[in-house]
Amino acid sequence: MTETGIERVRSADGSEIAFARSGRGPAVILIGGAFNDRSTTTALADGLAEEFTTYRYDRRGRGDSEDRASKVAVAREVEDIAALIEHAGGEAALFGHSSGAVLALEATAAGLAVSAVVAYEPPYSVGPVADERVASAERVVELAEAGDSDGAAAEFLRMTGAPAEVVDGMRADANTWAYLTAQAHTLPYDIAVCGSGLPADRLGTIGVPVLVIDGGDSEEALRAGARAAADAVPGARYRTLPGEDHGILRDPAALVPVVAGFLGRARL
């Protein structure tokens, strides 16, 4: 992959948003989820480089991006994507993973110049799990705002289904835990964008091609959220990738042709 180096755009509130651009062809903005910076989507960008110009960016407050907002709001992150779309030529497709998938759908519903969306496992809480997660989500925000990065990271992982022994294992790996806790102050953005349930009315206003994907080996709660999102977006397609799970970005070989094929057809 040929990368042009770190570039920056200024969002509506003055925050500078850092991104790396690579590839050639129509623009696709790649949006990571919780605990992610622009490095998370590098392998996906590599796979798309022959057909698309990809924009991997640090969501606000992460990596090299600023966050000048006085309070957390989904609208600020939507404005960041708007700035990237403008820089990319005025229109772009969006790929989002996890909470980044929800953000991609929110940006599209907000009326940005989005040509198509691929959303991998947007973690909408549906059914009984929605009520169960509200208290945990509030606790994550409290801990993050208090500056307790360790506590916020652990609570978020538990909220999303990680067993205690898995969290303990992550804590025991100094490099892994340092990376997670360095991102923990941004978790309130992930909590805000995912909300407390499926915003069916907003998703119902989306009028561009949308593909929602899940992994056949992912937890049922994630798969249920993906199916619900696909059902809520008019005309959306839904696809399962057998043998894949929520960690697909570590090895996106199965994902690349699906994303490229859908976005290519969406342009016809």
TrEMBL record:
The keyword Manganese does not apply. Keywords: Hydrolase. Pfam families: Abhydrolase_6. Residues 28-256 form the AB hydrolase-1 domain. GO terms for molecular function: hydrolase activity. The keyword Hydrolase applies. This is Alpha/beta hydrolase. It comes from Amycolatopsis minnesotensis.
